[in-house]
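Bug #77: duplicate submission created two jobs. Keeping one. Sequence:
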Amino acid sequence: MNRTIVLLTASLLMPATLWPQAITATLLGTITDASGAVVPGANIIVKESTTGVSRNTTTNQEGIYTVPYLAPGVYRVEVEAKGFKKFVRENVELRATISTRLDTALQPGELSETIEVTAEVPLLQTDRAEVSRNFTSKAVTELPLVDRSFQSLVGLMPGVAPPSVDFTRAEDPQGTTFFRANGQGNSANNTQVDGVDNTNPTLGLTIYIPSAEVVQEVNITSSNYNAEFGRAGGAVINVVTRGGSNEFHGSLFEFNRNRALRARNIFNVEPQPQPNFVRNEYGGKLGGPIVRNRTFFFGGYQGRKLRQSSTVTTTVPVDAWKAGDFSGVAGLI
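Kept job's structure:
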């Protein structure tokens, strides 16, 4: 069996209204002074570390700011206000569908003075009530997932029965993993890729399964979905694919399995030959800039070659049975 997956994407800076909410992150918070009084009109600059793409907003009369529709990633956040020192927070990690709160207390001083904080923002989510978990690209590529498919991650969620494969390769060549969340059947689940519905409405199959190399993040929500999700009573799997950055990055991979590393079938005893089995899974990815700080590209390829045979044990009728004589069958009479 040969299987090939190719993914080519391009990403560029677009108006916020064009970004689908289901695959983006939100940064919000309240800006105050040292006494706890709110600071209206403070300028907030949010800059993605790898692409250089930035967004900015200002606090309202209550000192509250919100920056929605941010691509998942690591950001640098700057806060500026007249009469206060500039505040900078590095390594703010924003994840898909998650609202991250970053409250800041400014210190009196000049804008030429900077207070820089490098501590990470706590991932405790206080602004949304959903029950969810996010898996990074590191988890997707390094955890021992069946067929290197992101679908196996759902088995790590509470309230989910062990995932299973219910169709043959001929019926479902992409290899859908079925699961039951919170007592609901598989048809109650919904799988999305970059915010687009990715579920066959008839059989509940997953239409497109991107390779592990091109997955940036997987968000699995099992209850209390936000308004942007629909057609689900069990769980929602939302996959975000990767994009390019200001630097060129790429990798190659290959995984091999063969019969020398496999245990024999219990009925396949020596000196019978062991059935042939050779599986090669290989590919790579490459991403980089087209126009720095604005337009980027990313592409991935995955191929699979599988050559195998199997051991089948069966019986054939003896001569007496062929003649209609079953007297030798114990317990028949």
